[in-house]
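User: Show me sequence and structure for the first protein, then do the same for the second.

Assistant: Starting with the first protein.
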Amino acid sequence: MSILPLRRPKIPPAPKLDLFAALPVPVMALDPDDRPVTINQAAESLLNQSAGLIAERGLAALTANGRPFAEVVAAARAQGGGYATYDIELGCGGGRVVRSDVLIAPLPEAPGWLVLTLQTRSVASLVDRQLGNRGAARAATGVAAMLAHEIKNPLSGIRGAAQLIAQTAVTAGDADAQELTGLICAEVDRIRDLVDRMEGFTDTRPLIHAPENIHAVLGHVRKLAEAGFARGVRFRERYDPSLPLVRAHRDSLVQLFLNLIKNGIEAAGPTSELQISTAYRQGLRIATAAGQRVSLPIEVCVIDNGPGASPDLNDHIFDPFVTTKSSGRGLGLALVAKIADDHGGIVEYERDGEGGRTIFRVLLPTA
């Protein structure tokens, strides 16, 4: 009995693909003269520049805040083999700066050529920032609920007693007593207004989300601001008209951006210049408080030319009662963090020291 050889099925040849173009992560290849030759679509999207412009400008297209990106490539060539540097600034089109991890490796089949992979920050830093914002929101909720219960109830009694004393002072013609009771009433009203603002944190009911045009929301916010606290402020808008709809609760989103604009104007002064920009960026999938995983590709930046917060407050800027303003209460940015988290998004604070700008970046999910 003869044994026939096992026949293996014929496997069709793999189609020829441009692997760089197909990769979902930003990748570019440098020739031996450090010229960007191949730039995939993900890298174009991250850097907000076309492949032709990046190739024309060379590594200068990636330089940000005075640190030449060529130094990173030179260090990789000096080391040989694989090279990695973390959390560095990259220059992007429109003056935007992103922080990224850069991984560099040689191409074995092409001596002298390098492949660069750009990863916008590390997963750990995004998770830490998201958890920090959630912690700030939870802390603000707890503090607000406690104060609203413990402080607001006695206020009406204090004010009522002061009014009764004022009536007696009027009858007796005691001007000093009238002045003091007026001061008591004014301070009670101020405390009541403060508690009213904090009660916004105590509402933990889930928001009803719907598809919204982010540019329509921002246009409404600008009209509200210009009709009130933003009179005389110069606004600059740099919008990406191709953005998809955002998944949001419209009223809460209006409150979020009103708070950011008001914060920027208070920091920079009434003659300040405020820039609002939108962009679509490839984002990581982030876990929401409900356990869902969503992508956050919608980016909205509110940029002012104020002095920014002191460096020691960078990690606490969204905590309640943290403020650098003499008349500030430290609740506006805490509410911004809460609303962003209610939408499954995050808000970032960044100081562009070279450009003298303060940047608040809100990342939101699509509808």
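Switching to the second protein now.
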Amino acid sequence: MSWLAEPLTYAFFVRALAAGMLVGAMCGALGVFVVLRRMSYIGHGLAHSVLGGVAIGAALGYHHYVGAVVATLVAALLIDRVARQRGLHADAAIGIVTTAMFAAGIAVVSMVPGAVGSTEALLFGSILAISTADLAVAGGMAVVFALALFALYKPLVFVTFDADVAGVQGVRAGVMEVVVNLLTAGVIIASVRVLGVLLVAAAVVIPAALARVVTRSFAAMVGLATVVGVTSAAVGLYASFHAGVPSGPAIVLVGATLFTVVALGAAARGRLTGARARRDAAAPVAAVTVGEPPAG
């Protein structure tokens, strides 16, 4: 069991494991709202906004979290405003806003050499890069996320399934949409040090997609996706430590493996159930045919 205990002797790994499990839980629970709203692309887009914000912040001499927070919150609010324009949908708004901010970050990185070092560690995540401050950010965001989910669970669920009907029933659908976008922005900011800019969206989508395959109960989906997110983070970080790969790819690959196994199992179960149903439907016909007297 030394492979299990050895990493825990290193302070950086303990920090990474704690932050990773917090991030995994948040990404899993948030993913259910994102996937059911058909906005899976928002995690990918906001993560790119983080990179742009970090690059611009580094060029101006600010801490990377300052640039990340400003850029991601601005992107989340702009997405909501652009999506309200006539004839546009959320996916178009996400594409317009986040790619523009990502392009701005790339432009800054190309012009300001000092900004490169601040962005490289964010691309794929690294357990070595996770500091006490990163753990504090993840913990603080987890508290905010949990409180928001507890206080606004019913209206958030209502808006997730049908924003128009929710508005008719008195739910402030527009406010709830902004809340979801801001929560997404906060979770992305807390996640990029562990998961990396390029992979954080997968960590949001995969646990929710797995839960969707297993159950249709919303509460059960949130619970299962949270467990899958935490499990993927813990197993992925151990794989990252022992195999020497970045933490982000390791976590995503564990989640993707779990999804593949569950999806294949669900497909096999569906085929078995269908075959059993066809046999049961054919049995009475066969019995009647066998029991008929010969003609003449």
